[in-house]
Design brief:
The chain has helices at 11-21, 50-57, 60-63, 76-84, 95-104, 152-163, 182-188, 200-208, 233-238, 240-259, 261-272, 276-281, 293-305; strands at residues 23-24, 38-43, 67-72, 90-94, 109-117, 123-127, 143-145, 172-174, 193-197, 211-215, 225-232, 291-292. It has 13 helices and 12 strands. It is α/β, with parallel strands linked by helices. The N and C termini lie far apart (43 Å).
Amino acid sequence: MRFRKACGTSIAATVAISALAGCSGTPVPATGPLEKTNIVVDAFPAIDSAGLFIAQQRGLFKAQGLNVTIKLAMNSQAAINGQMAGTFDITSADYVTYVDNVLRQKSQLRIVAESSFLQPNVLTMLVKGGSAVTSIGQLRNKVVSVNAPDDIGTLLIDSVLTEHGVPLNSVTFNNNVQFPSVGQALESGKVAAAFTPEPFVSATEMATGAQELTDLDQGATTGFPIQGVAVTQSWARSNPSTLAAFERAYSQGQEIADTNRPAVEKALESFLGMQPIAAALVSLPGFPIGVDSKRLQRLVDAMIKFHLLGQKFADFKISTIIGNG
């Protein structure tokens, strides 16, 4: 079972040190009337999206003149596919998938806000109750599930395998197990372990008796950036005032998420259908404001280290795709 964590760094402290910490992408004042008032946001359905949910629930977007519709994505790539097709105005997805799309698929995306960074017990690997697999080393020649190929789950698992001396080529990934089906996949023996984020960690443990094999907030990926918010470059150019209004409301939602645990629980109950007891027990990530380019660069460096990106991208600076330009 997950345990409650104390709130992270206070928003006042975050704002005070942002200039020194390399933060950017701070919401800017609108320069004119909103270019469009009805926007669709496609977000991955995880606790990382709590700030977005709170901004919607508390009418913060409406206060900025925006009518926001929130859709829940099957996975990050599906969200970005819809965004590039013009179905969604804004997405909230994992950074690994954003970076992969920018560098390998040449998608013209810009990261305009952070959603979350890793904290203890938020992203884990689960095994079934009573599993013979009780250590990372026992994953050799086993199958581990992730939600989608070469996304944040793959990166975090590669990191923990490496730190425990397990050759990456000795573990097989099953890329087709959706998070609501993790418990069934473990029970059937289809996979030996499963990458699982909250709230699916708590839900799977409660429903099937699954157990945590390891917390992925460790070693090289401690405090790791997980999920952010992006728009296409063309959308940002066409809708600067709308984007600024969205960012103001979103930042307010992030501040509430970081400092008000009951507000997060209420949002998770409403948007993710969590039962109150599960929402009360779930572990939370950090909910930052703006974009810290130094934190996000760690992710790019890790993608290269674990071969999710080739060496030809070794000089890529994520700061080049941050902000509203």
